[in-house]
């Protein structure tokens, strides 16, 4: 099937050649395509209010309160169910969001440009851990923190970026995967490099020294801050692949807390979904699998590109967070080479003797080997507002891949390309 | 080499697929390596047939 190999070669050239670059920041309602006051973006494939899980509902409630569209959680729930609020996946608006992934019109976002293809991706600023919107919390302190991020953090980072100029995120992440990050659930090195890169520009802003210090303290306290850069960098890298005709490469994996969805290049915007899995992992004291919400978030766009769970070998420390041993991490990465077409030319993994990250998931290989992509992830409590209860390792449902593969072969057949 | 001659030598076994053969050999002290092999699509006939369609086309 030469035409499939040709198509996949083109897709891999796009991934290998991508140059995701942080070019600025803006307000979602002003820069995210199609964004408006009554639209709420969420993680994963499309979903309606009645099917949303607890953490996603909680984040929607918080989003409506933050926007001033509702004053109380009860009012917000009523509004969300009324049909007057539109819901759409982040992925349909060139955006990605961790966990619940809720983006509303007033939220500041990072703007990432893939300098090779000219496409853009967007992501909000990471809130940190504890009581946060992305895990479905919507109490007054959550809203207050979001306002601080909008009124203090955002203007300072935006101005600092204008002083600094664009930041090459591929370069940043390529360094951090050699410093013990797999850039999904371990972002300590990436966040540190980001702070180092931005430090002098932050102190050159017009903000007061007190506010500048608060920004430094916040960035320093939040090891996951750079996740909201690695995710849109991965999104900006993978999106152009979705236009490569006949390619069998998976260019999206995402979950909304109810369904897991994938998209395959040749099949364009069509989602293939199945119920999201419960995560096997380490639970915080007092919590167990009984408390867990099914898999949620757009963050597995990192795995789709080849980092995250695919590059776990390079982050041995992460097993203390998600479970297992450093050898398990090496085994996960080794196995992912079985379902990918190339090794990354940029993300080189020291514990794998500097092999490149497994890159370009081929749906044919997933079906043939029955090896599913590996994803490491945070675990949200199934009830809104409680937050993270653990972290672990999870796989997409095989059904997503089987249905997509059947559709893929059907498409080629319909086009008269099969004997 | 005849089968009888083969089994008179020290065996070094590469076992494909079913792991129980590998377990039995190692329990008896026979050096063996396990290769995790599965039939295409794990034996799922529908998926194997679709894979076959792709592979048989040019």
Oligomer: heterodimer
* Model regions low in confidence, pLDDT < 50 over at least 5 residues of chain B: none
Helix percentage range of chain A: 25-40%
The total strand number of chain A stands at 15
Low-confidence stretches of chain A: none
- Strand % of chain A is 15-25%
**What is the radius of gyration of chain B computed over CA atoms, rounded to a whole number of angstroms?**
17 Å
Helix/strand-derived class of chain A? Answer: alpha+beta
When the domains of chain B are counted, the total is: 1
Q: Which sequence of SSEs, written as H and E, runs from N to C of chain B?
A: HEHEH
Distance between the termini of chain B: 40 Å
Order of helices and strands of chain A: HEHEHHEEEHEHHHHEEEEEHHHEEHEEH
Strand content of chain B: 5-15%
The whole-angstrom Rg of chain A is 20 Å
Q: What profile does the largest beta sheet of chain B have?
A: 2 strands, parallel
Notes on the structure:
The complex is a heterodimer of chains A (419) and B (58). The longest helix of chain A has 25 residues, at 140-164. Chain A has 2 domains: 19-231, Enterococcus faecalis V583 fold, CATH 3.90.1710; 240-414, v583 fold, CATH 3.90.1700.10. By secondary structure, chain A is α+β, with helices and mostly antiparallel strands. Chain A has a 4-stranded antiparallel beta sheet. Chain A is built from 14 helices and 15 strands. Helices cover 38% and strands 20% of the residues of chain A. Chain A has helices at residues 2-17, 28-31, 54-66, 73-81, 140-164, 169-176, 188-203, 209-221, 227-238, 301-305, 319-322, 326-336, 363-369, 398-414, and strands at 20-27, 39-42, 86-89, 108-114, 120-124, 167-168, 250-256, 259-264, 272-275, 280-283, 296-297, 340-349, 355-361, 375-380, 388-394. The mean pLDDT of chain A is 97. In chain A, helix 3 crosses helix 5 (140-164) and helix 5 packs across helix 8. Chain B has 58 residues and is an alpha+beta fold. Chain B has one domain (3-56). In chain B, 47% of the residues lie in helices and 14% in strands. Chain B is built from 3 helices and 2 strands. Chain B has helices spanning 3-8, 19-27, 45-56; strands at residues 13-16, 32-35. Chain B has a two-stranded parallel ribbon. Chain B is elongated and about 45 Å long. At the A-B interface, helix 13 and helix 14 of A face helix 3 of B.
